[in-house]
Write a structure and sequence with these properties.
The chain is α/β, with parallel strands linked by helices and 317 residues long. It contains ten helices and 14 strands.
């Protein structure tokens, strides 16, 4: 799952914005420009579309070009279009300063709030200037991929809770499953294709062919599903992820059956962040590194026989 980036600019700055998109796409990011057809639905205000975009995307990049002239204290200066400053503030508030970037044309007058802030500048008269600034943004994007922040919907906190209360204790069980000692075991965490409000029921259907098991973790017993395939395999699906769907529906109530593509994109973002945070936690401790593995639902189903797949299909569910 690639991270998604929203790119904002004025109409006059679209040429630069397109270059930004091409550069980031080449580096494996999914990017959308502000004027892409899918951003604004029919009969909706631009304000509503921007609010949804700030929830749907993982990062924002705002291109600030010399589009207007501002007279301040008797001095005339080139300035950025007001709506780009507004969009920057919106994404900054939603995503955090580590996930919102500005690309500023040299010579622009910026608000004094930017004083002391490290920004990426470019000079249209110097061909390599834009590339250097984009390399700087790319470096920060890669640094951000090594951490998991807290966001509007707390998928990072949910991942931490799942890791501390289930995954880490299971990996410390020393192979004692259903009162039988196994020399080797692995833990597989299945990530559902779609978030929904009742993952518990789907968990039982998806893992119907696996044997229920009790794992003797330190100080307590934990329940999961179990298969023996040369190595003992413990399977689990984080049913706590239903909370992400419920939180989403509380903040985005609907009067219809089904889910819109934009809503699915927002839920996918929360799921991506959960997986990202959980992977960082797995890699952070020797007890889980190399023993716990995250797989998505499609990969899990590919391991099953055709008859098992039919039993676990979402159509039947």
């Amino acid at each position: 799952m690639n991270d998604r980036i929203f790119i904002g600019s004025s109409s006059e700055g679209l040429e630069i914005a397109n270059q930004v998109r091409d550069f980031l796409v080449q580096n494996s990011y999914d990017c959308s420009l502000w004027n892409d057809g899918g951003l604004s639905a029919l009969n909706t205000r631009a304000w509503d579309s921007l609010l949804l975009a700030s929830l749907e995307y993982d990062y924002g990049v705002m291109v600030m070009t010399k589009d207007d002239v501002t007279i301040s204290r008797g001095k005339k200066s080139a300035s950025v279009r007001d709506n780009i400053l507004f969009e920057f503030g919106l994404f900054l508030g939603r995503l955090d300063y580590r996930k919102t970037f500005v690309l500023v044309e040299q010579g622009i007058k910026l608000p004094s709030d930017f004083n002391g802030v490290s920004l990426s500048f470019f000079d249209k008269s110097k061909p390599d200037s834009l590339t250097q600034s984009l390399q700087n943004i790319l470096r920060h994007l890669k640094q951000e991929s090594s951490v998991a922040g807290l966001h509007f919907v707390p998928s990072t906190i949910l991942a931490l809770s799942y890791y501390d209360n289930f995954l880490y204790p299971v990996c410390c069980c020393e192979g004692k499953i259903n009162s039988i000692q196994y020399d080797e075991f692995e833990v597989y965490i299945i990530i559902p294709e779609m978030l929904q409000d009742d993952l518990k029921n789907y968990y039982y259907i998806l893992l119907k062919e696996a044997q229920p098991c009790v794992i003797q973790a330190p100080h307590r017993q934990l329940k999961a599903r179990f298969l023996y395939q040369k190595v003992a395999h413990i399977w689990d699906l984080p049913t706590q992820m239903s909370v992400l769907y419920k939180a989403f529906r509380l903040t985005h109530p609907s009067s219809y059956i089904g889910i819109l593509e934009k809503e699915k994109a927002m839920l996918d973002k929360y799921k991506r962040n959960f997986v990202h945070a959980l992977q960082i936690l797995i890699e952070s401790k020797i007890e889980t590194k190399g023993k716990a593995f995250i797989i998505d639902e499609k990969d899990f189903l590919n391991r099953m026989s055709p008859a098992q797949k039919r039993k676990c299909s979402r159509q039947e569910y």
